[in-house]
């Protein structure tokens, strides 16, 4: 009754506003009833896993019955360390024979983690991914180039199954190899592409080096960007560079991967799919719940996963619930873009700094290019935060006085934001190291130089 | 009526002999009736594509009706050059909106090629892949590590969908990174893995370097090897190194990718799925059909592909139909292992040589290691074929006379096979270049040294 049939979907796929009208616009009271029912099912399943079988609170709650979503606060959190400790099979809640895929972190440092999926889980994930893309305006008629790495990384297969579920023509391009990406885009008239934001700056440079302008020489109208925190300014730049709308995608492998929360065409925060997850925001210090609007750590509970339910997972991602309803009509609440991770924060000279705060300031300045990095070093017997900033070509000119003024202005703006005056180095465009995977923004040399 | 229901399959998956009993053991007369019906459908679909719409013979055959499979010989061949010439949309037989995936060659030299798939095509491919693995003894209870590259290369997604369809626990490991491959195998108790044969020698070296023996320190019982021609001797070596059964997998992207033909547990040739393909063997020079048992070029016609049917595709792969029935009871005919490609052949001093002929000789010798290469060079004013051969550690010893005898013996055996006396160089184990992708076996320096 809640799910629409595939046949209906195929018939009118171009005319509908939503991928699953009824589920996406469910009145809050009904959505919470659905959550309660599914939470109960998830706890029953979870209790079959060695890890949660040991959890007295889950046992008690299952015996006594769970009456409201808020009762979830009586249950203990699950952390990344829990996942590592009970690696590999400790969170498996299903018969091994039922599991058809795992995604595991590569785990070069510390123990790896793993997530298991059965047939139902993969179908549900693909559906959430299709729903997300549909909300961002992607349609069956689109040609979708996925520039994510495939394999164990969830950005590849996660998007692939969702794109196919939606019915787009998928191009499983994989990560890197910019010249081939450009050729594929032009050969097949790619209209939508998915990539991490730091790669798109690099891809744009290759377009220009080839004498091409992506705004004119491709049919792109939409970019999906995620897997890396980024600012609103960075999004606007990407949109300008490619002449597209760029939508923010959020996910993490512990909650499947991509398709957890996604921007609709309003671009005012990411709808987090509350039929599939219970969302809490907590103070990462006190672990107490925070009210809507206040920024804290995102905590999530799976509601539609059978092989490996996870209860109250501390994502370490910092965000807030955006108050108010979205004009699109979806009743699932929206989270703000991720502004860092609770463990990204570094402390220098007694100040708590999130790299995103620095990025937010830099990306607002028209003189600044797409690349920067923060170096924490021990110089002249004291700790210093050095911010290296690539300027745009036209700004990196011979006028030393103008550069000095800009340098002072940036230092001043950053001091106002992070309450600490950094050393600012303005550098030539293209001089900071480039990467095809996630950019390394913070380099801490304090331990080695002391 | 021919397809079994998923429910039935799940119930008794461990007890059945075949993945699809009825289809796999269909009496030849019925199988050919099915082929005829599907050929007719395929030609109707093909005629919708710009390329085949121009084909007068298809038009005539559709008007007059096709009465027997042999009539296919009246139709023209399709070559890789045709695919390139009509790139990208010339072979598309479906509405673009219906297509949900493409696989394209990277095309660094010459024009790329592309194959399109709709929902039906991907489901059919996944089913052929599952049927193939089931024939090689893989079951739902297995843990399957796919060491193929993902993305546009068909070995990744092709196997992935098939493994999930079969119901194994899939580990989408991707290519390379041997230490991680080994860790995944041990962490999750991998029982089946898929890789290209030349990579497995390298992986084995890494096992040994880590002080591990894959026969003792893994739970592997089956390896699936393909995407690279290899000899029976190479298979036996891989089986001995890993303590497993190794099964030969054959496919090519123009015919989907993997899942075209596969060895059953009898290991006596590869069943080629004749409900999905019409198989011909032709003389690559005269283009005339060859009788069963004679080696020639494999020509294939898709019977179950909707978005992009391909008629009489010249695969350039050299093989033969193995006469006689297989004890396993499957009625689909078997092809011999691929012994090279019609365009791999090189001509030196007037002799036609296939690299597989050289490999076949070398791999029979107990003194020879897993790596070799053929260099064609212009020395002292004449063309020479130089065969560089890595010896096994225990054979590369100080006894020069013994080495000289071995060198002469190899030269002699090769001359008997290819009718040309090569220069043989015996080299230390590990001294020839290693690769994680397909090994480069032939290096032609004749043009540059002349
Ligand atoms: Zn909205
Ligand atoms: Zn057989």
Topology overview:
The structure is a homodimer of 450-residue chains.
Chain A: H1 6-11, H2 21-24, H3 28-46, H4 50-53, H5 56-64, H6 80-85, E1 99-104, E2 114-118, H7 119-135, E3 143-146, H8 154-166, E4 169-171, H9 178-188, E5 192-195, H10 197-209, H11 214-217, E6 222-226, H12 232-242, E7 245-252, E8 257-263, E9 270-272, E10 277-282, E11 296-302, E12 313-319, E13 321-322, E14 334-335, E15 346-348, E16 351-353, H13 355-363, E17 368-379, E18 382-391, H14 400-418, E19 423-427, E20 442-444, H15 446-449
Parallel strand pairs in A: 3-4, 3-5, 5-6, 6-7, 17-20, 18-19
Antiparallel strand pairs in A: 1-2, 7-8, 8-9, 9-14, 10-11, 11-12, 13-14, 15-16, 17-18
Helix pairs in contact in A: 7-8, 10-12, 13-14
The structure holds zinc ion (ZN) (2 copies).
